[in-house]
Design brief:
Strand content: 5-15%
CATH superfamily of the largest domain: P-loop containing nucleotide triphosphate hydrolases
Radius of gyration: 19 Å
Number of helices: 8
Structural class: alpha/beta
CATH architecture of the largest domain: 3-Layer(aba) Sandwich
Helix content: 40-55%
CATH topology of the largest domain: Rossmann fold
Mean pLDDT: 83
Number of strands: 5
């Protein structure tokens, strides 16, 4: 009898997790489908201008900031605007040889000095002239960087964008944008 109630509890828990994950994935897909330059937050718009200015000459630029400030969304906007190739991780860049894009954006880069130098070697080997390396922390090596942070006005912009696609948010006092899009984080 006790085993049956535990089994039922596990089934209900799995269903709840699956339901929350479905909402999260649905929200992320809505964001990807509806993304545009108009969806950029004020901070993202400023950083986009700085990144485009920095990339006017061939170089590598580090886009850094804590988790949940919108670095990946900004990277997607840069891809759309500059026709760069986006790679969610360095291993995807390594697997996809010979990109014809004028530049690349590689997300989730390890910010260590050694890792940065390995990335630079890979970029040089592939003859990539312009690259944006997205990290949570500043790369402590010789590279240009642009830092993204999150303000209350940024949260308001994201709130408005999500509400426009049917994902209303109740509370803007969240530590990161992940709390706005992930329903399971909102209750913690």
């Amino acid at each position: 009898m006790a085993g049956d109630s535990i089994s039922l509890w596990i089934v209900l828990l799995c269903w709840k997790i699956s339901s929350e994950m479905s909402k999260f994935v649905r929200t992320l897909n809505l964001i990807k489908i509806n993304r545009s330059a108009e969806w950029l937050t004020p901070s993202q718009a400023q950083v986009l201008v700085a990144l485009k200015e920095a990339l006017r000459v061939p170089r590598t630029v580090n886009l850094c900031g804590p988790a949940g400030v919108g670095k990946t969304f900004l990277a997607w906007a840069l891809v759309d605007e500059l026709d760069y190739a986006y790679f969610p991780h360095l291993r995807h860049f390594a697997q996809t040889r010979q990109s014809t894009a004028p530049g690349v954006i590689i997300d989730n880069i390890n910010p260590s000095r050694q890792s940065h130098r390995n990335v630079l070697k890979a970029l040089q080997f592939e003859d990539v002239k312009c690259a944006v390396l997205v990290t949570r922390e500043l790369i402590r090596d010789y590279t240009h960087y642009v830092e993204l942070s999150l303000s209350f006005k940024d949260r308001e912009a994201v709130f408005h964008n999500l509400a426009s696609v049917g994902c209303p948010i109740c509370d803007l006092r969240v530590p990161s944008l992940w709390y706005l899009v992930n329903p399971s984080l909102r209750r913690t």
